[in-house]
Amino acid sequence: MSARGPLQGLCRICAIFGNLTEDHVPPKGAPRIGQRLLYDLGYAPNPSTVAKQRGRMFQRGVKFRTLCADCNNRLLGAQCDPELIALARRVDTHIQSRIATKELPVQVTPALLGRAVVGHLLAASNETQAVNAPNVVAMRNYFLDRTLSFPDGARIHLWPYPDHMEFVSAGHAAITTHGNVLVYTLKFYPLAFMVAWDSNPDWALPGVDITALLQENSGQPRNLDLPLDRVPTHFPELPSGNNGILVTMVGDETIRYSVPYRKS
Ligand SMILES: [Zn+2]
Questions:
Q1: Which domain of life is it from (predicted)?
Q2: Residue closest to 69 by CA, chosen among 126, 1, 123
Q3: Residue 111 C-alpha to ligand 1 middle, in angstroms?
Q4: Where do the DSSP E strands lie in the chain?
Q5: What is the DSSP letter of 164?
Q6: Ligand 1 centroid, distance to 254 Cα (angstroms)
Q7: In terms of Cα–Cα distance, which of 145, 166, 186 is closest to 13?
Q8: Do the Cβ atoms of 106 and 91 come closer than 8 Å?
Q9: Residue 118 CA, ligand 1 centroid: distance in Å
C-alpha cells in the first residue's frame, strides 16, 4: 500500500510544517510470518483478509506520510523502534518455537516502548488532531519530552497478535456496553497495543495492562509476563460478544489495513 497524503504538512509529532516522510508499520526489522505457519499453529487469519486476498494482492505494510524526517528517522526510528522490534522478535521466536505456555516472560524498557507505540499512533493521526485534540497533544508532549511519564487519563494494553494483517487506528470510538471509549490501536505481527482514553475501568481490554509500567518511565529494562492464552486476534476491527464496535470518528484516513503479499 503506497502512502497517501501531501508531500508537505504538519508533522504529527512536533507539529512543525515542512516536508513529510513515511512512517512504516511494521517498522523495518520487525519479524514476518507466513500464513501457512499461522494455520499450522491453529490461528485463523482475519476472515476479511482472506476475502480480500481472493481478488487482489497488496504489498505488505502500512505507510503514513505524516512525520518530519527528524521525528521519523531519529526520535522514532533510531531511538524508540529498536525496543519495539526487540519485543516483536522475542514474541515471534516463542511463537515459532511452537511451545505452548500460558505466559511469556519478556523484558521491556518502558520509556522507549511507550514512545515507540505512541509515535506510530501519532503518525496515524491527522493535522486537526495533532493541534486540537487534547489526548493527541498529550501524547505528542509525552513523546517529545523524555522526562514525562505516560499521559494521565490513558491506559494501555498489550497482547500477542498472531496474524499477518496490520491494523492502525488513531482516535476512534469503541461503543461498548460500558459506554463510548476513545481508542488508538496499533497491531502488527506479533504484537497488539491499544491506548484507551478516559475509559470506564469496567470495560475489560485484552492482554496485559502496561499503564503502570509505562508511567514509571524507566529507561532500564523491566520484567513483564505477557499472557498468551485467550488471544483476541481480531479485536477491535472485528468485534464480537460485548467487545464493542469500532466507529470512525475522523474519517477513514486514520484507519489503515494491509494484507501481506502472498506467494502462491
Ligand atoms: Zn516532527
A1: Bacteria
A2: 123
A3: 19
A4: 8-10, 17-19, 21-25, 62-67, 103-108, 154-160, 166-176, 179-188, 191-197, 208-209, 222-227, 245-247, 255-258
A5: S
A6: 18
A7: 145
A8: yes
A9: 14
Q: How far is the CA of 11 from the centre of ligand 1 (A)?
A: 5
Cell, residue 100: 505452548
Cα(97)–Cα(46) distance, integer angstroms: 22
The C-alpha cell 519530552 sits at 145
pLDDT in tens, the chain (264 residues): 455 679 999 999 999 999 999 999 899 999 987 666 666 666 655 555 444 443 333 346 788 899 999 999 999 999 999 999 999 999 999 988 888 888 999 999 999 999 999 999 999 998 998 899 899 999 999 999 999 999 999 999 999 988 877 888 888 777 666 667 788 999 998 999 999 987 666 777 888 999 999 999 999 999 999 998 777 766 776 655 444 445 444 333 444 544 333 333
From the CA of 207, how far away is ligand 1's center (Å)?
31
How far does residue 62's CA lie from ligand 1's centre (Å)? 19
User: Residue 43 carries which DSSP code?
Assistant: P
- Alpha carbon distance 56, 66 (integer Å): 26
Please tell me the distance from the alpha carbon of residue 173 to that of residue 255, in angstroms, as a whole number: 12
Q: Which residues neighbour 206 within 8 Å (Cβ) at sequence distance 6 or greater?
A: 157, 159, 192, 194, 230, 231, 232, 235
The Cα–Cα gap between 110 and 118 comes to 12
Nearest 5°: phi and psi at 15?
Answer: 60, 25
CA of 19 to the centre of ligand 1 (A): 10
Q: Report ipTM (2 d.p.).
A: 1.00
